[in-house]
Amino acid sequence: MKFTWFNLMPWPYLPDDFREKNRSVWVDIDQKLFDPVKAHEVYNTYMDLLEYADTLGFDGIGVNEHHQNGYGIMPSPNIIAAGLARRTKNAALVVLGNSIALYNPPVRVAEEFAMLDCISGGRLVAGFPVGTSMDTNYCYGQIPALTREKYAEAHDLIIRAWTEREPFAFNGHYNKLRHVNIWPRPIQQPRPPVHIPGGGSVETYDFCIDNTYSYSYLSFTGYIRAKALMQGYWDQVAKRNTPDTSPYRAGFAQTICVAETDEEAERLYSEHVNYFYNRCLHVYPGFADAPGYRTIKTIQTGALSQYAPPRGGFGQLTWKDLTEGGHVIAGSPDTVRQRMEDLIKSLNVGNIFCLMHVGNMPADKCMYSTKLFAEKVMPKLKTLMPEWSHDERFWCHPLEKLATPGTLPSPYAPARAPEHA
Amino acid sequence: MQQKTIDTPHGAIPYLEGGSGEPLVYLHGAGGMTLQDPILEALSSTHHVYAPFLPGYGETEDNPQLRDMLDYTLHTWDVVRALGLKDPILVGHSMGGMIAAEMAAVSPNDVSRLVLIAPAGLWDDDHPIPDLFTLLPFELPQYLFHDPETGAKLMTAGLRIDDPEFLKAYLVRNARQMGMAGKLLFPVPDRGLGSRLYRIRAKTVIVWGESDRMIPPAYAKGFEAGIAGSRVVEVPEAGHMVILEKPDVVANAVASVA
After folding, report:
1. How close B176 comes to chain A (CA, Å)?
2. pLDDT band, very low/low/confident/very high, at A202 (cuts 50, 70, 90)
3. What three-state secondary structure class fits B239?
4. pLDDT digits over B128-169, tens only?
5. pLDDT, tens digit, for every residue of A217-244?
6. Which of A178, A237, A298, B127 has the lowest tally of Cβ within 10 angstroms?
7. What is the mean pLDDT of residues A29-38?
8. Of A141, A173, A292, the CB nearest to B178
9. What is the DSSP letter of A407?
């Protein structure tokens, strides 16, 4: 099992009446709610927390990309990952990921990921999301009906840029490049492992199967609701005669809060969980799905955006609703372990993205929950799926010996000429 | 009107045909077109009307080979050629007006009469066009109609909006149609037409509903200034869907270019 500690980086200062006074947390969120001076603290605390997770033995630390978004102040995950690369030694840097249809040209992603892989000594796990409609279409202006074609082209270009050893010309619909020859290239050969975040598009299942990429379902509604979707993926894996059903072919994001007891978990975390579901997921429905972004085939299967909120919004869901419904796995180490086991077995997922910083959770509570998970839950889950423990296709392969940042020698000292007597 | 099909290099294209008189090609807007469209009825009383569906509309699939403005401009010329028409009166509403204007700009010698009904294609920072692609169905009437209440009834007439199966079909159709429209209109409906308007040599009438809150009437001036000798007809008590609200007034304006 691979556990990645993930931080969405929510803005923790959305006002109590955010939902009433604002139409959306995303795309056209009020500029006045952002305070750059407070952001100095917020970013540094969030990066500290990611580094803290590395010290506790998480397999990976995870970052992702959103734009103009009050629950994800990380338009460039690569900047955060670069900082983490210098201050961590063990954890994989799971960048989940770069929305490759947005980069012009996308060789930029091939280059930056190569830099991250070199700086971190081969600890990069690369993610290539199509990107949400909010990010890709409404914030970054990509034409919805062409987004997937542009994404596919960007993917082909990046993989070729990583793997070919001679300069080549690339004549795409969206990219015309006469001399593709990225310098640097990644440490990991033939390429870093790739995870594809998806939200139920059937085309994405095939894409992962065809390329031996891990399919990641980044849901906020928890593992119980995810069963149908993940089953759709595994059905497709079976239908395509894929050689194996390794759980590492799949990943799942789950909000997790651990305390000494179930009661303590509710007391400590319910306000932060409420903040996340009530304020952070308050997305204007007109931004949820630009027409043409989802394929007709996908709409016909009934997979709609998870950002089209339930009737009445999440705000009506109580702590009990959210924990019993599996949106959030919370409670004592034993409760959390049982539910995580249920999650892992029922979804058959080997990569778990642990959403352990929730909403406006302060650092100390987040550390408390994280430490309990790392010490009392994770060790018992690590041994699940032993028959697949050899499967290293979907994880990074760092160098044996890593450089130690911050260990410069003494500056060069010119030899002194002997003084005249 | 009758629905027929014509073969083109991009596959079979359905079109509506009816009326008699001078041939006229009508290009629909982003909302699509139906057999019962009042504007087709009005135009066909004096003209032989041909109204092709864009790929993605009229139960056709979107054509992934068509990506940009030039593709759709030339595709529509292919349709006109396939229909065996030479210099038909070219009429377009909204996105269809944008395509008609592009057709007249790329082939100025093949279009002598042009009617642009609240055409898309220009952008003016002083009059930003609402983001059509974020609007929810219940928000549309206030942008599209002079009288949103009556407009809402016109939009939903005969539709079973409480039926889940209907709603699913609606979502699919909307995604298909507006997905195609996005290739020309998303996120800002400007593909450079403004710099090509000078090429148009057709006798041109520009028709605009005075209460158009989707593409404000101020845009009429941009088209008028760009197309030599063009004339603007402002229609009172009509919005962007002037073709639904005042089809006869539009038809009269069309008759004036003949």
Report:
1. 6
2. confident
3. coil
4. 999 999 998 889 999 999 999 999 988 877 777 778 788 788
5. 998 889 998 999 999 999 999 999 999 9
6. A178
7. 98
8. A292
9. -
Put simply, the answer to whether B186 touches A144 (Cβ < 8 Å) is yes
Question: Does residue B195 have a pLDDT over 70?
Answer: yes
Structural tokens at position A16: 């109590």
Whole-number Å distance between alpha carbons of A48 and A84: 9
- Examine the predicted complex and report whether its ipTM is higher than 0.90: yes
DSSP collapsed to 3 states, A182-207: CCCCCCCCCCCCEEEEECCCHHHHHH
Token pair of A5 as six digits: 């500690």
Distance CA A173, CA A130 (A): 17
Count of CB atoms situated within 10 Å of the CB of A385: 18
How close, in Å, is residue A295 to chain B by CA atoms? 8
* Domains of chain B and CATH, by start: 2-255 (3.40.50.1820)
Structural domains of chain A, ranges and CATH numbers in brackets? 2-388 (3.20.20.30)
Kindly tell me if the per-residue pLDDT of A266 is higher than 60. yes
* R_g (Cα) of chain B, nearest Å: 17
